[in-house]
Amino acid sequence: MTAREILMMFKNIGKKVWIRSSKPYPISLSLRKLQGLLKDDLSMDRDCFNLIIRKIMLDDIQTSQKTKQLIAKHYLDMKFWMTT
Fold this sequence. Notes:
By secondary structure, the protein is mainly alpha-helical. The chain has helices at 3-15, 31-36, 46-67, 78-83; strands at residues 17-21, 27-30.
């Protein structure tokens, strides 16, 4: 394998989808977007933020279902903010 082929392989790894969520709308995160979360000098990618909000919301729903409590919070992601 040549150095050029190895370099192309690493470039393609950064573009490959590592996390995918489809409901209520599709979000796909590449390795490059995930690496951006670790960099303090960069702003958070919109899809990363939306997926984090989705995860927190689903965790709260599951907790409230187990404890038979009402959901007392509202969650808004960036997609909602952009459409209003």
